[in-house]
Each structure stands twice: as C-alpha cells, then as structure tokens.
Specification:
mainly alpha, rod-shaped
C-alpha cells in the first residue's frame, strides 16, 4: 500500500508528462501568434527594400541631371548641341 509521502513526490514520468504538455501548449501558442507577425514583418521588409531601390534610382537620376546641368553651364559645345536639337 502506497504511503502518503510516496504519493506526493512527483515521479519521473509524471514530470515528463507535464513537461511535454507544456511544450505542446507552447508550440500551439507560437503557431497561432507568430505567423501573422512574421507575415507583417516580411511585408514591411519588402516595402523597405522597394523604397530603398526607389531612393537609389532617384539618387542616380539626380547625379545624371547634376552632371548635365554642370556640362550645360561650363561646356560651350554641349550647350550649343542642346540648343540646336
């Protein structure tokens, strides 16, 4: 007959059961909470990459136009070619 003291002490398999149950609940909670956040973060990263690409394109265009403007001001052959066309 089991003694009251033996009943109150947790057994190895009882501890494994509760550990497994808590781990399973953690996985279920993570599966419910994390995918929407991951999708939102991925969407924000995609938008950030698009904006950075647009900024780089604008910087390139700005450099080309600044070069054309300085050539127009300083190079008489370039200026005459533009006026004739």
């Amino acid at each position: 007959m089991p003694t009251p003291r033996a009943r109150k002490e947790p057994t190895f398999w009882n501890e494994i059961y509760w550990f497994t149950a808590m781990a399973l609940l953690g996985w279920i909670l993570a599966a419910l909470v994390l995918p929407p956040r991951i999708a939102k973060n991925a969407q924000l990263l995609r938008k950030e990459r698009e904006i950075i690409a647009n900024i780089q394109d604008l910087e390139h265009t700005e450099n080309v136009l600044e070069g054309a403007a300085s050539a127009m001001e300083n190079d008489p052959y370039y200026r005459e070619g533009l006026i004739r066309d």
